[in-house]
Every structure is written in C-alpha cells, then in structure tokens.
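Need Zinc-finger domain-containing protein's 3D structure for a figure. Predict it.
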Amino acid sequence: MSSKDNSTNPCNKANHVCDKAQYQEASLWEKLKLNVHLILCPCCRDYTKNNKKLTDAIKSSNIQCMDKQCKAALKEKFNKALKEQKIS
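Structure prediction for Zinc-finger domain-containing protein:
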C-alpha cells in the first residue's frame, strides 16, 4: 500500500471519527480512541475545536432557503440567459 493512503494515517482517521462523532454516528470505541489520540496530537485537537465552532455557527445561524418555486424560476431564468449567451 502507498504511504500516501489516507486510511492508514492516524490523524486522518481521527478527523473522520471527529466528523462522525459530531453527527452521533461514531461508536463508543471510536470515541475512546479519538480521545486518546486528541491527548497526544495538538493538530487534531485544533481540528476538533474548529469543527465544533463551525457546527455551532451553522446551528445558531438563521439560514433561510428559497422555496421550490423561486428556485425553479431562477433556474429557468439562468438557463435562458445561458442560451442567449451561447447564441451571441
């Protein structure tokens, strides 16, 4: 196996488990191994801290999405403008 294989890098594995833990998808064993890794690795501690900040910011934001009708109208308008651009 290549030494650049991400699945064998302990930090990449730890970051993946960190992501899974955020969404309550990590097992207890994975969380325990992650916590041991975080004790030893300052880079992964930073990753985990920043990941938590990002999640908290997204949860506390008041994002409002377009409804389906607005999206469809915008898409139609975009496609029309794109066709006009190709013709010119």
